Fold this protein.
Amino acid sequence: MAKASAAGPLKNQGKFKYTLHMMRVNAGCYGMMAPFLILFTIFTIVPVIMSLPMGFTNFNMVQLPKFIGLSNFTTLFLNDDVFMIAVKNTLVMAIFTGPIGYVLSFFLAWLINEMHPVLKTIFTFVFYAPSMTPSVYVIWQLLFSGDTYGYFNAILMDLGILNAPIQWLTDTGYIFVVVLIVQMWISMGAGFLALRAGFQNIDKSMYEAGAIEGIKNRWQELFSITIPSMGPQLLFAAVLQISAAFTVGVVGQSLVGLPSTDYVAHTIMNHATDYGTIRYEMGYSCAICFVLFAAMLLVNKFINWLLAKYLD
Amino acid sequence: MGLSEKEKKKQEKALAKLRKRQSKINIEKLHVKKNKKRANGSTAGTVTIFIFLILLGIFMIFPLYYAILQSFKPIHELFVFPPKLYVLEPTLVNYESMFKIASSLWVPLSRYIFNSVFVTVVITISNMFVCCCAAFVLAKYRFPGSGAINKIIVTALLFTSNALWIMQFLVMATLGMIDTYWALILPSVAMPMNLFLMRQSISTIHDSMIEAARVDGAGIFRICWGIVIPNSKPAMMTLLIFAFQAAWAVQGGVLVYSEELKTLPTIMQQISASGIARQGVTFATAVLLMIPPLVVFMIAQGNVMETMANSGIKD
């Protein structure tokens, strides 16, 4: 900021010296950044970056990592049938929690935005409460319990739809749907909050101008005023949603077990957990994580590109 | 005099008129017009939307409601077929037996509570402190590397601890942190999302205030904590909520295997593992666990909305 201007005359003395000087002038900044940067590097950057080199090794936590070239990756894509199931499951779940969850939370935020403040508060609370609950899976476990004490079984049997209880959490026909429902339930979260706040940000006079210009219904208003003026919020929510969509599986794991029956709800995250903490094949697990990170980055780039194209 | 008084009255009248009109424009015209337009659009549409919202709301809130309900049911109501959506004789017996069960555990309940509270407090405070310091610098200063760090933070929003923990496990094993409080606390301290939200909020504060403080001789730390942070209360409350939520949900997982170091969510797992017979108790624990974050959120909701309003990503 202001301090930068003091370094004006030094600018001519070469870029390197200038940079050094600026670093010295702003030493305080580095001091303030240090605690965050150190922890961030150790617990976020190193894990992400290390996943690539570790992916080239065979590492069991006991012996030293052994370099085995691309073998992990070739096995992963060519010989690991379970991984293919995991990719398919992750994609299906990601489509539901990603795009569909995103559009849904956008519409929710939009609908709520036009309401009375009290209703607004209530609905915000209702839609955000699930993502704050740390005890999610216990509740769902008992709702979907396989005996007649499980809520859904009891209700369906009482209505005469079922004759015998369904094993929701172990029957291969139902596991996936159950996990999907729970995943949808918790994935509204922060993206919804960001979008709701984004609606409050929009300059009200824009709508007035729009009405004068002859905008007739709320759909027209939505597409020609609201969405274009929410770009940054849309991006932020998209980032949160992508990250949630690609790491699905953590809840499913506690709900239907790891691995789930016949791997029907097995996701990439589950696969990595399986190899990382059960089989102790860390190298392989790292390769899986790396593929996941790379996929997330690519999708993020794509969304950036897509939104930028639409918004400008 | 008479004339000027008349004039004054006239002026006042005109002013009042103007004010009235303005307020009409501000409050009524906008909203009434919009409402009218909406009604014109279709009443059926509004009704459909409302029904849709209510149905979705029920889907979202039902599991929580059911959990709370079950936790207050006495045993003979818990196992009624079909399950009822109300309770006739609410009782605290489940909560009592929760404490009874917990006190017969190998590690006393107080230890789990201590662990949870300790971890939550340490994470929340250090998270807020660390994120505020870094956010202030990133929002208000340009120095070699600041651009790159900003970019990295935005990218890092993608990598939640969900995706990272296997690699974190390796890192922590290397550093010898497995099975210590460090393993519970440190990974949750540097939270890119909190840094990002704080940065966006601080960048809306005027530079002149910081400049004034700098001229008065305040150091960078003093400016941050004496001037900037006290002026970003909403953002601080938001950080508090997110940090608290993350901290409260921290479980040992594979990072901690000593029973003495585990947190409250682990207890719930243990109790729920004993199955259907302890359904009421399980729900009592679940309810107890979900209360703190909900309460914190309710208190600070207005502030959250204000902060999230600045959260957009601009390139």
